[in-house]
Specification:
alpha+beta; 40% helix; single chain
Length: 83
């Protein structure tokens, strides 16, 4: 598995809003948003299912992780200008 998955009984737009809300409750902010469906349509004229990537960041967790492995920052949406 590459991530955390949870199936919810909500329409897509409401599910995304709920994820944002829950992330905020845990101290995360969404710094980036990639609409994969729209990007694939625009760049490759490919139809794809609803798919969004939210780059969420929690600065205290980011700092803690960087203290352990500095290069972990390569996999995070948090960049020094975003903190």
């Amino acid at each position: 598995m590459y991530g955390y998955k949870r199936q919810v009984n909500l329409p897509y737009d409401k599910a995304i809003a709920r994820v944002r809300e829950e992330l905020g409750k845990e101290g995360f902010g969404v710094l980036t948003e990639i609409d994969v469906k729209a990007t694939l349509k625009k760049k490759l004229n490919v139809d794809y299912e609803d798919y969004i990537i939210l780059g969420a960041c929690n600065p205290p967790f980011t700092y803690q992780a960087l203290q352990v492995i500095k290069d972990v920052g390569l996999m995070m949406p948090c960049k020094s200008s975003s903190l």
